[in-house]
UniProtKB/TrEMBL annotation:
<dbReference type="Pfam" id="PF24877">
    <property type="entry name" value="ILV_EDD_C"/>
</dbReference>
<keyword id="KW-0460">Magnesium</keyword>
<keyword id="KW-0479">Metal-binding</keyword>
<feature type="modified residue" description="N6-carboxylysine">
    <location>
        <position position="125"/>
    </location>
</feature>
<dbReference type="InterPro" id="IPR004404">
    <property type="entry name" value="DihydroxyA_deHydtase"/>
</dbReference>
<dbReference type="GO" id="GO:0009099">
    <property type="term" value="P:L-valine biosynthetic process"/>
</dbReference>
<dbReference type="Pfam" id="PF00920">
    <property type="entry name" value="ILVD_EDD_N"/>
</dbReference>
<dbReference type="InterPro" id="IPR042096">
    <property type="entry name" value="Dihydro-acid_dehy_C"/>
</dbReference>
<feature type="domain" description="Dihydroxy-acid/6-phosphogluconate dehydratase N-terminal">
    <location>
        <begin position="35"/>
        <end position="351"/>
    </location>
</feature>
<comment type="pathway">
    <text>Amino-acid biosynthesis; L-valine biosynthesis; L-valine from pyruvate: step 3/4.</text>
</comment>
<keyword id="KW-0408">Iron</keyword>
<dbReference type="InterPro" id="IPR056740">
    <property type="entry name" value="ILV_EDD_C"/>
</dbReference>
<dbReference type="GO" id="GO:0004160">
    <property type="term" value="F:dihydroxy-acid dehydratase activity"/>
</dbReference>
<feature type="binding site">
    <location>
        <position position="447"/>
    </location>
    <ligand>
        <name>Mg(2+)</name>
    </ligand>
</feature>
<protein>
    <recommendedName>
        <fullName>Dihydroxy-acid dehydratase</fullName>
        <ecNumber>4.2.1.9</ecNumber>
    </recommendedName>
</protein>
<dbReference type="GO" id="GO:0000287">
    <property type="term" value="F:magnesium ion binding"/>
</dbReference>
<keyword id="KW-0411">Iron-sulfur</keyword>
Length: 557
């Protein structure tokens, strides 16, 4: 424990009296100045069901910290709801919020010289935002996930929030009537917790557990179950021990931990956003990591879990089947996980998994045996080519024809594309191009769940491709390629595509190509002019000026 962190609380003498006087007002007694000060970053909010149960969890943890001999200091962090803002201008703030969360946690923890950090989060950007802050701070820290939502039920099937998005496309294609659309909306989200499939929130929570920054089994617990509250209390106790032993995030978030996280991303069929967020977290702890590391892991690790958005099950089903520890043990048993990596508990990953069976239980089919995977190799492919010289990220399923070539249908915003889809202007075989939606161009790199869900709802999910310099929701399925870099606003080749140009997506060869002669591409480049920024003041303007390429994690520092 460094002296400069503790000195503000523990140094005796009159020169510290003003500082101590303020702390007494918050509840410190004489003996409390000798205890470690632990920040509780509380992301409670009624803005989104993902975070509306976090306040109670934070209160349970606060009391557990006091009983364990620490002095908790609770402060708020922001959240926005990706699902509620999806398809609107507000979605531009989603990825920006990751940076705001990281900056705010770093600011409070350093300004108040905290000895440890317990961070709570539920919606998508809470997790990477908190981990980025932990990496920068490098004080003992534990992340506590708010938990997943239980599935909704209607007409004999499980529902998630993505069901509501896809129902819009079904309604527009006259596959369901307005009453069924309304019933799906009413039943999709039954209570508190993050979106139920292996979407971004559940994926990132799973990867934080994999990397050892949260407790085993914590990433698949239901938000409203008592075990989640007990997990918050146990996390507090583990953090106090980590403070005593000085187990630091940079000892845990090593290259081995990131390789483990990428392996689990593939095995659980996780979101493409994992690429963006793991790159950003690695940047925060100075661990070299590139998109090519995901490409290499794809060749080694199969998809083992049959989870939504393109599978059958949700996160609570995975929890009952053995959770992330069971997935990790299968990978460890097959030489695809680093068991020597450290966790915040002080134990190695191998020690944590020691008593987990090598094979999943035979009375479930959520987690497949290694010899009988859902897909033979990972579902996240890194594509390069003359349309994405710096790379792009594709989600690949077994239903996808490879290669796929079709004429470009070009849109300079998500809204204009959505209008074309809902009015029947997109046809089988088209390759939709949505551009100027990247980190700089959007700004904010909006997720394209509304267009992709509408395509699925209209029955075009496997016959129409969509590429973008924006990104996708973890709930997206279909033939999609995102994170195209360089982005259009930075002069990337995606800015040069015109309607009708043939585009080829070939995940087998990891290729994304504009089938236009090079001389024509050069002619178009000479004529291209960068568009004016969409915002000149405020957080989006500041973000656009600072943010890096998606291929580097869209970081701002």
């Amino acid at each position: 424990m460094t002296d400069n962190r503790r000195s503000r609380v523990t140094t005796e003498g009159v020169e510290r009296s003003p500082n101590r006087a303020l702390l007494r007002a918050t509840g410190f007694g004489d003996d409390d100045f000798k205890k470690p000060v632990v920040g509780v970053a509380n992301a409670h909010s009624t803005i989104t069901p993902c975070n509306m149960g976090i306040g109670g969890l934070a209160s349970r943890a606060e009391e557990a910290l006091r009983k364990a001999g620490a002095m908790p200091q609770v402060f708020g962090t922001i959240t926005v709801s990706d699902g509620i803002s999806m398809g609107t201008e507000g979605m531009k703030y989603s990825l920006v919020s990751r940076e705001v969360i990281a900056d705010s946690i770093e600011t409070v923890a350093n300004a108040q010289s905290m000895d440890g950090l317990l961070a709570f989060g539920g919606c998508d950007k809470n997790m990477p935002g908190a981990l980025i802050a932990m990496g920068r701070l490098d004080i003992p820290a534990v992340f506590v996930y708010g938990g997943t939502i239980r599935p909704g039920h209607y007409n004999g099937r499980d529902l998630t929030v993505v069901s509501a998005f896809e129902a819009v496309g079904e309604y527009c294609a006259h596959r369901i009537d307005s009453e069924e659309l309304l019933e799906i909306e009413r039943h999709a989200c039954p209570g508190a917790g993050s979106c139920g499939g292996m979407y971004t929130a559940n994926t990132m929570a799973s990867l934080i557990e994999t990397m050892g920054m949260s407790l085993p089994y914590s990433s698949t617990m239901a938000a409203e179950d008592e075990e989640k509250a007990k997990n918050a209390e146990e996390s507090a106790k583990v953090l106090v021990e980590a403070v005593k032993k000085q187990i630091l995030p940079r000892q845990i978030l090593t290259r081995l931990a990131f390789e483990n996280a990428i392996a689990v991303t593939m095995a659980i069929g996780g979101t493409t956003n994992a690429v963006l967020h793991l790159l950003a977290i690695a940047h925060a702890v100075d661990v070299p990591l590139t998109i090519d590391d995901f490409a290499a892991m794809r060749e080694r690790v199969p998809v083992l879990c049959d989870l939504k958005p393109w599978g059958r099950y949700v996160a609570t089903d995975l929890h009952r089947a053995g959770g992330i520890p069971q997935v990790m043990k299968i990978l460890l048993s097959n030489g695809l996980l680093h068991g020597e990596a450290l966790s915040v508990t002080g134990r190695t990953i191998g020690e944590i998994l020691e008593k987990i069976p090598d094979e999943p239980s035979r009375d479930q089919d959520v987690i497949r045996p290694f010899r009988n995977p859902v897909l033979e190799r990972g579902h996240i492919a890194i594509l390069r080519g003359n349309l994405a010289p710096d790379g792009s990220v594709a989600k690949v399923t077994s239903l996808r024809p490879v290669p796929f070539t079709g004429p470009a249908r070009v849109f300079d915003s998500e809204e204009s594309c959505m209008e074309a889809i809902l009015t029947g202007k997109i046809k089988t075989g088209d390759v939709i191009v949505i551009r100027y939606e990247g980190p700089v161009g959007g700004p904010g790199m909006r997720e394209m769940l509304a267009p992709t869900a509408a395509l699925v709802g209209e029955g075009l999910g496997e016959s129409v491709a969509l590429i973008t310099d924006g990104r996708f929701s973890g709930g997206t399925r279909g033939m999609v390629v995102g994170h195209v870099a360089p982005e259009a606003a930075s002069g990337g080749p995606i800015a040069l595509v015109v309607d009708g140009d043939p585009i080829t997506i070939d995940s087998g060869r990891s290729s994304l190509r504009l089938e236009v002669p090079e001389v024509e591409i050069l002619r178009r480049r000479a004529a291209w002019c960068p568009p004016p920024p969409r915002y000149i003041r405020g957080v989006l303007a500041k973000y656009a000026r600072q943010v890096s390429s998606a291929s580097e994690g869209a970081v701002t520092d």
